[in-house]
Structures are given as structure tokens and as C-alpha cells.
Amino acid sequence: QVQLVESGGGVVQAGGSLRLSCAASGRSFRSNTMAWFRQAPGKEREFVAAISWLGLSTSYADSVKDRFTISKDNAKNTVWLQMNSLKSEDTAVYYCAATAETFRLATRTGPENYDNWGQGTQVTVSS
After folding, report:
1. Do 30 and 53 form a contact (C-beta atoms < 8 A)?
2. In sequence order, what are the beta bridge partners of 39?
3. pLDDT category, 12, cuts 50, 70, 90?
4. Whole-number Å distance between alpha carbons of 28 and 30
5. Cα-based distances in Å from 77 to 88, 122, 124
6. According to the model, what pLDDT value does residue 102 have?
7. How do residues 57-105 score in pLDDT, each as one tens digit?
């Protein structure tokens, strides 16, 4: 098991930026595929971005491509989501997720592919 704790959420104006952090403990972090998901009120949890365990491969949802960047530092047991040019539709609770499995990131974007989750952090973008 991996314990995940997100931070960095908040309220930001449209066009602004936020950086989310996810601190991991427990199972060897460096061997985990990591991802960010988000869930807006009344909507299903949706894929945002993922990064391979070595950090050499990333995948993004079309809605955030070219605006968001996922990165990780295995030495710090941390994964980040840099969010730029935020829009009101980015408002959601953002969740960090992990799995020990290795797969092609773009082919498995459903939340069922990840078995460890953080508690979430709220991001609100005001227009």
C-alpha cells in the first residue's frame, strides 16, 4: 500500500496558476505509476494526467494538454501537477492516485486502474 497526501489546492482567478503536490509513503514510491484525477460536483471522476514510474512517460487528458504538467521526484517521494491558464471548468476536487502496475498510460485512464488514492484537494477557479 501507498499512502498519498495531496496539498496545494485553493481558490484562483481564471487564467491563474496552481501547483498541486502529492506526498507518498509506504510501498516503494519509485516503482509506482502515478496519476491525477479530478471530480466536479455531480460528475464522474475523470483522468487528468499520469506519469510512469521512471518519469519518462506522461499522458494528459485533452482538456488539460498544454496547460498542465505532471512531474515526479522519486528521491522526494512526491508528484506534482502544475496547472496554468486555469479555467472555471477546471474547478473540482483533485485526487492523487498510484498503482504498482506498469502499462501504456494513454490506454488505461480509468480510475479502476489505480488502487491507492489520496483524500483530495479542492481547486476552485473563479471567473
Report:
1. yes
2. 93
3. very high
4. 6
5. 30, 22, 26
6. 84
7. 999 999 999 999 999 998 899 999 999 999 999 999 999 999 988 888 9
* Residue 109 CA, distance from chain mean position: 12
Cβ neighbours around 100 below 10 Å, total: 15
**Strand order, beta sheet including 18-26:** 2-7, 18-26, 78-83, 68-73
Residue 98 identity (one-letter amino acid): A
Q: How far apart are alpha carbons 4 and 22 in whole angstroms? A: 6
Phi and psi dihedrals of 84, rounded to 5? Answer: -115, 165
The closest of 36, 58, 46 to 105, measured between CA atoms, is: 58
pLDDT tens sequence across 14-55 = 999 999 999 999 877 677 899 999 999 999 999 999 999 888
Q: How many residues does the chain have?
A: 127
The residues, any chain, with a CB within 8 Å of residue 29's CB and separated by 6 or more, are: 2, 74, 77, 98
